[in-house]
Prior knowledge:
This is DUF7715 domain-containing protein. This protein has one domain. With 123 residues, it is α+β, with helices and mostly antiparallel strands. Strand 2 and strand 3 (54-55) form a beta hairpin. The longest helix is centred in the last third of the chain and has 15 residues, at 85-99. The protein has helices at residues 30-35, 67-79, 85-99; strands at residues 23-24, 46-48, 54-55, 58-59, 107-111, 114-117. The strands form two sheets. It has a three-stranded antiparallel beta sheet with strand order 1-2-3.
Amino acid sequence: MATRKTQGSREGDFSRTIEGELVFDAGPCTGVADDGEWDCECSIAFRGVATGELTTTAVVADLPMRLKEYQEAVCDGLALKGVCSDCALECARAAWKLAMRWPTGTVIERHQTRFAPRQRQQS
Length: 123
C-alpha cells in the first residue's frame, strides 16, 4: 500500500499516489524493455491501482482483503488503463507474493528488479 513514510530519505524519492492506495509492481516500462536501460522512474517505483501514479515507497499492510479481492481491485484499476486481465492478474499475484516476504509495517523500496525493506536513516 502506498505510504509517505521514509519519503525523502533517498535522493529522487517521490509519491504521486494517494496515501494508503493499493499498489503493485508494474515491471519495467516500454522504454526499458526496448533499450535495456533503467533510467526512468519505473525502475524505482510502485504503481497505484486507483490513480495509476507512481511512488517510491510502499508499506506491507494487514488489510481485511484476500488475494482474490486484491486481484479484482488490481484488474479493475488496470482495465481502465487498457491492460488485459491476464496481465493484471499476474501483477496482482506477484505483488501479493512480494508483500508476504516481510512483516506488516515494513516499508519497501524498489531498485529495478530488486525489492528490499527501506532502512531508516539515523538523524
